[in-house]
Amino acid sequence: MVNFQNGIMLVVPLELAITPMRVLQDPFLGPECRALFEEGDVDDRFLMMLFLTVERLRKGSLWKPYLDMLPTTFGNTLWFSEEELQELRGTNLYRATELQKKSLLNLYETKVEDLAKKLLNLDGDSEIEVCFEDFLCFLEPCFEYSNASFLCIS
C-alpha cells in the first residue's frame, strides 16, 4: 500500500529498475560496460545512456516496449533546428549549446557508435543503424535520474 502522507507516490521493485548496477550485471551488455567503467573513462550516466540506447534498438530486448513509449526528443536547445539555434547566436546559451553538442558528439563518435554497433551485431541486429539522436534522446532522462532521490525498500 502506498502512503501519500509520507511523500511516497510510487513504489517500484528494485528488480524492475534500470540502474547502473543492473547495466553492469546485464548478461548481454555487462561485460563491455564493466570494461569501460573499470578503465575510468565513463561514469554511471554514460553507462545508463549506452544501455538505454542499445536496448531501445535491440529487437529482442525485454525493455524495448517500455523504451519505445518514451519521448525521443526534448525541448532543450540541443534539439533546436539550425534556424532556431541561429536566433540565439551571440548569447551564452548559443555558445553553451554548441560546446555541449560538440562534446556529446565526440563522446558518441569515440565511445558509443562502434560499441553500440558491436553489441547489436552480437545480438543479430546487424542491419540496425545507430545514430547520434538515438544516444542523445537519453541524455535528459539520465541526468534527471542522477538528480532524483530514490528510497530503496527491500
UniProtKB/TrEMBL annotation:
GO molecular function, one term: protein-lysine N-methyltransferase activity
Cross-referenced CDD domains: SET_LSMT
Protein name: SET domain-containing protein
Lineage, uppermost ranks: Eukaryota, Viridiplantae, Streptophyta, Embryophyta, Tracheophyta
